[in-house]
Amino acid sequence: MNQYSISGKLPKTQRGRETRNRLLDAAEKEFGERGYHDAAISGITKRASVALGTFYVYFESKEEIFRALVSHMGHL
Q1: Cβ-contact 68, 6 below 8 angstroms
Q2: What gap in Å lies between CA 76 and CA 19, rounded to an integer?
Q3: What confidence tens digit (pLDDT) does each residue in 18-63 have?
């Protein structure tokens, strides 16, 4: 695993990395505006303009994307 992965599910392609980064950016906004408990995976995917199922390609849960986001922000 590297600095941006908690789960080890890192994309192998540039397109995958871009999608994962869009999800992380969207999660930052969703958590920032709504707080952790009120934030929703559907809100994150809507902000990232991806299908709900796409979320689960990269993350298993809201907690996992939150942890990945904290790790990602800690390494910027």
Answers
A1: yes
A2: 18
A3: 999 999 999 999 999 999 999 999 999 999 999 999 999 999 999 9
